[in-house]
Design goal:
One of its GO terms (biological process) is calcium-ion regulated exocytosis. Belongs to the CREC family. It is found in: Golgi apparatus lumen. The protein contains 15 helices and six strands. The protein is mainly alpha-helical and 294 residues long.
């Protein structure tokens, strides 16, 4: 359930530049030293150890920064796809610009749409278009008219920063887990195991751990008034990317990956030892494209 919009690990990619301060670095060691020492951005007290609180602060700052960038990017794109400047963008207007960005002739695409002719696109592009159209429908606030305002267009491009999209997700989660139809979640409903059958002891152990984690998440993080029930409002607050408790939980999880000495801090040597994990493409891709999962 936890949602981290921006991961601190992306600053430690072996890219030749420190993601924190922009200083050119030759290797991972110098970048870690930059982060943990001279920069003092993540490691606020400059003790060459990063605590969960320090990482939480960094995550919150990067989330806010990403939100601002998303808004500016959305405004730029909106102006580009709203040629008549009427303050609304139709699906067809966006589709023309999107296919043009993929190398198609803008005039030919526009003519084909106007004449209701079939567009010749490859299978991969067609799949992307179908996914985009699904997101377009989700961003279109009732009453649906397939015309997006600038605010709705932001929801389309960056659903992770859309209050409406967040509420839509909460509604879907409650609908899927709510077994008695009261539009809220009890602990047994929340920890219900995903559909599947445990085939061996190892699988049972995994499921047991999953249940323990979900129980702790429910009781300590989501159920804010500790009444044993999670309402839609509580779930929405928890899933909000700007939720500080969510950021702290994410920070603790990331530290735990490499915390060999169990001091609940991240040290340069631990980052180096687990560099493959911290610089892995999957982790970087996740941090950069979490909005697509929304």
């Amino acid at each position: 359930m936890s949602v981290c919009v921006w991961s601190v690990w992306s600053v430690w990619r072996v890219s030749g530049t420190c993601g924190v301060c922009g200083v050119s670095v030759a290797c991972m060691e110098r970048c870690v030293a930059c982060v943990c020492g001279a920069c003092g951005v993540v490691d606020v007290n400059t003790d060459r150890k990063i605590s969960a609180k320090e990482m939480q602060r960094w995550i919150m700052e990067k989330t806010a920064e990403h939100f601002q960038e998303a808004m500016e990017e959305s405004k730029t794109h909106f102006r580009a796809v709203d040629p008549d400047g009427d303050g609304h963008v139709s699906w067809d207007e966006y589709k023309v610009k999107f296919l043009a960005s993929k190398g198609h002739s803008e005039k030919e695409v526009a003519d084909a749409i106007r004449l209701n002719e079939e567009l010749k696109v490859d299978e991969e592009t067609q799949e992307v278009l179908e996914n985009l159209k699904d997101r377009w429908y989700q961003a279109d606030s009732p009453p649906a008219d397939l015309l997006l305002t600038e605010e709705e267009f932001l929801s389309f491009l960056h659903p992770e920063h859309s209050r409406g999209m967040l509420r839509f997700m909460v509604k879907e989660i409650v609908r899927d887990l709510d077994q008695d139809g009261d539009k809220q979640l009890s602990l047994p409903e929340f920890i219900s195991l995903p559909v599947g059958t445990v085939e061996n002891q190892q699988g049972q152990d995994v499921d047991d751990n999953w249940v323990k984690d979900r129980k702790k998440e429910f009781e300590e993080l989501i159920d804010s008034n500790h009444d044993g029930i999670v309402t839609a409002e509580e779930l929405e607050s928890y899933m909000d990317p700007m939720n500080e408790y969510n950021a702290l939980n994410e920070a603790k999880q990331m530290i735990a990956v490499a915390d060999e000495n169990q001091n609940h801090h991240l040290e340069p040597e631990e980052v180096l030892k687990y560099s493959e994990f911290f610089t892995g493409s999957k982790l970087v891709d996740y941090a950069r494209s979490v909005h697509e999962e929304f």
